[in-house]
């Protein structure tokens, strides 16, 4: 029996590792392409080779191998006293470094990627703070207050999670236009001030808080506002942290809505800004992959720092009343 259990666990781990590798392969390919050599020729090649668009694609940065190859050749030339060859291989080493990182140099010197990064950071932080506050208040009311139609309101909010974003694009766009928010950052912030998933998450968490704590605060003369800030918020911090992470990632990766309501290049978020590089035909495939790499790195760091909260958030979402 124990051997069967070990075999079953082994197969599960193998399957999970395989799925993880398959899932991460496209991301790795993006990173590798951003560091790939474009149109390069050394002493052994008959004509230049573009490794960025080679078929089949190279799944590792060729420049790393080429740099060490040229370094070994230069050392050999210096040992043999062939100064001309040593200079040639030294120049090739510089060329490899320059071409490997040229995508990052072009991206940061010739585009507005720093402004787009700051725009994404600003919008993500403001929206996250607003959503966490509003959803915590909504979850508190739906979890602890008694009033007619409470469950109808709750299920009405939950039902909005089943509506695809594309369905609400036109009415939301009309609202933004009438409020004269078009081509401003408020066009991104205002329609996102409440999140149905956040209301659900906070309500489910707050249901576990004993009502006796709230009753005791009322007996001590605390107002509703004071009960919320001094009793509910401190106890709800774990769920608020989870909601903050989910919201920040959602807003950071938002793509469709920003390209609809923003025209000014200085106001674009990072995903929308990268789209303009492709539209303007100013960028090569390597440059696009470099932009995707720059956009992905903050989220990867963010996930690594808070991964245990991601797992906790998924388990919270599954709690039933």
**Overall pLDDT metric:** 85
Rg? 27 Å
Question: How many angstroms separate the termini?
Answer: 37 Å
Output the helix-strand order: HHHHHHHHHHHHHH
Strand content: under 5%
Major beta-sheet overview: none
Structural class: mainly alpha
Q: Which geometry do the CA atoms define?
A: elongated
**Helix tally?**
14
What is the tally of beta strands?
A: 0
Measured as a percent range, the helix fraction is: over 70%
Task: List unreliable stretches of 5+ residues.
Answer: none
Explain how this protein is built.
By secondary structure, the protein is mostly helical. The chain is built from 14 helices and no strands. It has helices at 2-34, 62-79, 83-110, 113-144, 150-159, 169-178, 186-189, 196-206, 211-219, 224-235, 237-252, 256-261, 270-279, 285-317. α4 packs across α13 and α9 runs antiparallel to α10 (224-235). The longest helix is centred in the N-terminal third of the chain and has 33 residues, at 2-34. The radius of gyration is 27 Å and the shape is elongated. The two termini are 37 Å apart. Residues 117-306 form the ABC transmembrane type-1 domain. This is Carbohydrate ABC transporter permease.
């Amino acid at each position: 029996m124990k051997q069967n259990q070990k075999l079953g666990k082994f197969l599960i781990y193998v399957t999970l590792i395989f799925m993880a590798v398959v899932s991460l392969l496209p991301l790795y390919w993006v990173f590798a392409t951003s560091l790939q050599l474009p149109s390069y020729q050394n002493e052994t090649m008959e004509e230049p080779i573009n490794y960025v668009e080679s078929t089949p694609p190279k799944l590792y940065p060729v420049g790393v191998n080429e740099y060490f190859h040229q370094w070994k050749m230069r050392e050999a030339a210096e040992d043999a006293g062939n100064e001309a060859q040593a200079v040639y291989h030294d120049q090739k080493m510089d060329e490899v470094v320059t071409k490997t990182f040229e995508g990052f140099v072009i991206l940061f010197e010739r585009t507005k990627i720093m402004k787009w990064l700051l725009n994404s950071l600003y919008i993500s932080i403001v929206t996250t703070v607003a959503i966490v506050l509003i959803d915590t208040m909504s979850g508190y009311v739906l979890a602890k207050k008694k009033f007619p139609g409470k469950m109808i309101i709750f299920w009405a909010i939950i039902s909005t999670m089943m509506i695809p974003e594309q369905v609400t694009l036109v009415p939301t766009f009309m609202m933004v236009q009438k409020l004269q928010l078009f081509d401003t950052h408020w066009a991104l912030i205002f329609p996102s001030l409440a999140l149905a998933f956040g209301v659900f998450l906070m309500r489910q968490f707050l249901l576990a808080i004993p009502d006796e704590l709230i009753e005791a605060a009322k007996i001590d003369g605390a107002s509703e506002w004071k009960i919320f800030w001094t009793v509910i918020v401190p106890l709800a911090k774990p769920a608020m942290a989870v909601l903050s992470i989910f919201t920040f990632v959602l807003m950071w990766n938002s793509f469709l809505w920003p390209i609809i309501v923003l025209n000014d290049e200085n106001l674009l978020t990072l995903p929308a800004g990268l789209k303009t590089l492709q539209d303007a035909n100013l960028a090569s495939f390597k440059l696009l992959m470099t932009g995707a790499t720059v956009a992905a790195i903050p989220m990867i760091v963010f996930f690594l720092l808070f991964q245990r909260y991601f797992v906790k958030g998924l388990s919270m979402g599954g709690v039933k009343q």
